[in-house]
Automatic annotation (TrEMBL):
It comes from the Bacteria. Residues 1-26 form the signal peptide. This is Inhibitor I9 domain-containing protein. Keywords: Signal. It comes from Kouleothrix aurantiaca.
Length: 132
C-alpha cells in the first residue's frame, strides 16, 4: 500500500509546482528603459528651501510648479535617502531630453540638483581567471 500513496504525493507535488510556475510565466515583466534613456528624474531641494516646500513634494501644487518649470507633466514616484525624491516622467525620453528637463529643474532656486535616473549596468566582468 505505501507505493500508491507515494505516487499520489509525488504527483500532487509535481502538479502544485507546475501550477505555481504558470502565473509567473504568464505575467510579462516590466521592461526598464533602454540604455541612454530615462523615465525618471532624481531631485533634491536645497536645505535653505522653506520647510513647507521640502515637505510638500507629493502635493499637486508643488508638482504643478515643478512640472511647469520642467515643461512636462511630472508625477511623484518615491522618496529617497538624503532628502532626494524621484519624479516620474510621462514617458521614456532620450538622454538629451532627460538632461534638458533636469537642467530646467536645476535652474529653480529651491532645487539643489536634478539629474536623470539611469539604470546602471556593468560594462564587463573581471579579467582575472582566478576570480571566483
Amino acid at each position: 500500500m505505501p507505493r500508491p500513496r507515494l505516487a499520489i504525493v509525488v504527483f500532487a507535488f509535481a502538479l502544485a509546482s507546475l501550477l505555481s510556475i504558470a502565473p509567473a510565466a504568464a505575467r510579462p515583466a516590466a521592461s526598464p528603459p533602454a540604455p541612454g534613456q530615462s523615465n525618471q528624474i532624481i531631485i533634491a531641494l536645497r536645505p535653505s528651501a522653506d520647510r513647507a516646500t521640502r515637505d510638500s513634494m507629493q502635493r499637486p501644487a508643488q508638482l504643478g510648479a515643478l512640472s511647469a518649470r520642467a515643461g512636462v507633466q511630472l508625477s511623484y514616484a518615491r522618496a529617497m535617502s538624503g532628502d532626494a525624491h524621484v519624479l516620474r516622467l510621462p514617458e521614456t525620453v532620450p538622454d538629451a531630453q532627460a538632461r534638458a528637463i533636469a537642467a530646467r529643474l536645476s535652474a529653480s532656486p529651491d532645487v539643489l540638483f536634478a539629474e536623470p535616473d539611469y539604470i546602471n549596468v556593468p560594462f564587463g566582468g573581471p579579467n582575472d581567471p582566478l576570480y571566483s
